[in-house]
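Incident log, structure service

09:12 report received: a user says their structure output differs between two submissions of the same chain.
09:20 pulled the input from the user's history:
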Amino acid sequence: MRIGIIYTFFVLILTCTSSLTAQISPGDLAEVHSHLEGISNCTKCHTLGAKVTNEKCLECHQEVKSRLMLKKGYHFSPKIRGKECVSCHSDHHGRKFEIVRFNPDKFDHNQTGYILAGAHSKKACKDCHKAENIANIKIREKKFTYLGLTRRCLTCHADYHQQTLPSTCSDCHSNVSFKPATKFDHSATNFPLTGSHQTVGCADCHTVTSKNEVRFQEFANIPHQNCTECHTDVHQNKFGQMCRDCHTTASFNSIMGMSDFNHSRTGFPLENKHAELTCSSCHKRHLTDPLKHEKCTDCHADYHSGEFLKEGVVQSCSYCHSTKGFAGSSYTIERHNEGTFQLKGAHLATPCFVCHKKEEKWSFREIGMNCVDCHNNIHDPFISEKYYPESDCRNCHQETRWASINFDHSVTEFVLSGAHTTQTCRSCHFKNDQNGVEYQVFSELSSHCTSCHQDIHYKQFDLDGKTDCLRCHAGNLWEIPGFDHNKTAFKLEGKHEGLACTKCHKHVRAGESSYLLYKIGETRCEYCH
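09:34 re-ran on a clean worker, output below:
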């Protein structure tokens, strides 16, 4: 019986669908939404028991949703953001109803994130918003849309340069007009215009031709390495292709010098820095006047003030320097190690100026051989002279690094043993005063245990005012390897043998701390029992 009722209801629904649709729907959908007609499609836009929501709209309009997620575009502008879609785009008003409609004359394009300025402000919407300017195929296929354009110039404009220049037109052009290219600065290229080049018309170098059957002017890849790529070589290659070796850009009649002259024929070839000099730098009067040039000091002052005299004659600068410049040196570590001070360990990585330019000027002779000539002696006067004669740091430190110590402590009055062999020098010899200021203690450091270690027994085991911890403890981890209680005034016998020490030796308060009382001073039974 229930099956029959359900079947009958289902048949009624099928037979009444058309009439129900007409009664429920407030009107025909617009043409763009016409594919959603029918009661079975209602929930694609409407939420049962609620109004149309933005979420439903954005399920279909992914192109708008993606812009909102990127926080860009008109729909994310302060004016529109947060509004319900249906407040601007309602439907059920008939097939011919325009869901997207607005007054172009009053539309504020600034809300889209792209300000219309210059020539753009005079354009109609349809001049830019057309299918051929939309790269996204899905958006382009829409019958009507204002979406899909990018901010790139070439979205709307043809690439006049045909990919020979970057696509960022605004680097050279303004939004007022493509001509002239007011932002272009020729000095920013690798061929700045100087002299007469400044008055040459652009087309004289950048010729106008045809490329891919359209007008084209070449701006990139213009040969300019040699002057003869633009200028006729009247010398017929007798002096090479670089006119600027002799001429200036002011005029061909302006001669810079004799740069075409083969100076090697004089016996003094011009190399590196010498090749950059003008003739008058050396030839003060006449080019043909003979010059002394056998020694560097014939032209250059002796910067080192006679430090490198050999038999009264200044050695050649080429011993350390080259014609590439006085800055830097060709003096190698191997050559340095042939001298009296060989570079080892960390000295190999030390820049020359650290030792040889301690003051304003470089110095290479008589700069000292001892460590303290370069390094600050932080141990003076804390360490006795007998442990490092002449303040030679190498008696303790290694040249590899300061932290590596090779001092033999057995030569002192305190031989390191046990746990002391694992301690760093700073553990005992560097201390902090009551203000936290670090100070050194070497020769004045006492060898008594309590000089470094706290006497937790509060002088119970003092002899003559000194506590010798080694009487009970071994040198490793404060162990007590074989304390014999029977050598004390109270032998452990019977039940006393198995007792823990703390059963008899109690904690005693000492100010804010406490300690175990070992020297009880009482052996009577009733003292504990």
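09:41 both user submissions now match this output. Likely a transient worker issue. Closing.
09:42 reviewer note: The first strand starts at residue 208 and ends at 211. The beta strands are 208-211, 214-217, 309-310, 313-314, 430-432, 438-440, 462-463, 466-467, 507-510, 513-516.
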